[in-house]
Task: inverse folding
């Protein structure tokens, strides 16, 4: 593989003219202090580029639509920069993309429906931006997804039953948004899931632990939602491998903390802070 990789303390603008080498397959400039915009013709001279790593720099401006011309691109990593503006629908043309990292920027607007065209996507991370609107329904058809990080935006709407289609998911983080409605029971179809964070939203309805009956689930965070109900006496049968259970601020929960929670043998963190209605027996 022909590649160009620099991990130092580079500053200044990237001289993208040096990338006009048709044989380059990978460019890695992550972890520097490079600044400036990405030029609109970035992919014109890179017909076989498979990896573009520019995370953790000081790049800014819009993500150019011409990135869609990198038709062989498999990994696009632009996280931890200062990019802004929308994600254009042209991103759906990167049909070979497997990893898309756009987190910790200032992207705005909606997540385009065309992102569902990325049928080979394994990791999608757009956390800590300013995206609004609902999650495109097309995302729930990307059956290859293993990591889905949408946290720290202004996304709203319901979490649909179609979430259960993502049966290869290992980590799902939707925290710090404005999601409403009930948590769909189809989450239990995510049989590979290890990390689930739905905290800091406005989910409502009854807290049904059978929804999270996933044998490999290690971390469950439902912090500060509007869920109600009680903790079941057989809670550990639903969460046999749970290590972290965060139910902070679920003030509508009532009842007692079941003795059986001591049977959760792998549990290391249990946080039930601010449960004014919970009383009676404790562990």
Result:
């Amino acid at each position: 593989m022909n590649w160009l990789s620099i991990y130092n303390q580079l500053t200044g603008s990237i001289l993208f003219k040096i990338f006009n080498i048709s044989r380059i397959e990978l460019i890695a400039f992550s972890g520097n202090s490079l600044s400036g915009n990405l030029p609109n013709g970035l992919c014109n001279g890179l017909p076989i580029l498979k990896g573009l790593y520019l995370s953790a720099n000081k790049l800014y401006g819009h993500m150019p639509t011409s990135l869609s011309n990198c038709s062989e691109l498999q990994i696009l990593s632009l996280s931890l920069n200062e990019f802004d503006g929308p994600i254009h629908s042209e991103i759906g043309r990167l049909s070979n993309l497997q990893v898309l990292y756009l987190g910790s920027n200032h992207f705005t607007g909606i997540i385009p429906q065309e992102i569902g065209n990325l049928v080979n996507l394994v990791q999608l991370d757009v956390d800590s931006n300013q995206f609004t609107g609902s999650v495109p329904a097309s995302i729930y058809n990307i059956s290859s997804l293993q990591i889905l990080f949408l946290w720290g935006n202004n996304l709203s709407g319901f979490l649909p039953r179609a979430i259960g289609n993502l049966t290869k998911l290992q980590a799902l983080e939707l925290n710090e948004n404005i999601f409403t409605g009930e948590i769909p029971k189809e989450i239990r179809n995510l049989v590979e899931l290890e990390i689930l964070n739905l905290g800091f939203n406005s989910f409502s309805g009854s807290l049904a632990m059978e929804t999270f009956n996933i044998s490999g689930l290690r971390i469950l965070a439902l912090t500060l939602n509007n869920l109600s109900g009680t903790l079941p006496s057989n809670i550990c049968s639903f969460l046999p491998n749970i290590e972290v259970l965060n139910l902070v601020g679920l003030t509508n929960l009532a009842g007692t903390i079941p003795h059986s929670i001591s049977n959760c043998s792998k549990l290391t963190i249990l946080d039930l802070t601010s449960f004014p209605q919970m009383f009676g027996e404790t562990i």
Remarks:
- The chain has one helix and 23 strands.
